[in-house]
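Input chain follows. Return structure tokens only.
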Amino acid sequence: MGFKENLKAELNFQNVLVKELAAKTKISKRTLDNYLRTNANDPPATTAVRIAKALGVSVEYLVTGKERKPKKSFEKCNTDIIARELKKLSKQECCVVLDLINSICTNLH
């Protein structure tokens, strides 16, 4: 998937309207609508950065659909990334993850 498809998916995932993104980025709704069109060109890099920041994702994610993997250090924990990854799991796998989280939290207290 490309920028257009990933942007559409992220807006849907976060339940954000184009007009809300326009207000956050100070990019006109019409311009954003143009990026979401069928034969749309990708935005300039500076615009893509503004969109990514407003959505709390990386430009790389909007362009490729994949998050960059950390090399030696952990990335800042991002609940949006965690939620997106959980959506890929089955209900049973989600329950296992929830049990793991509960176990970690119990051991911290």
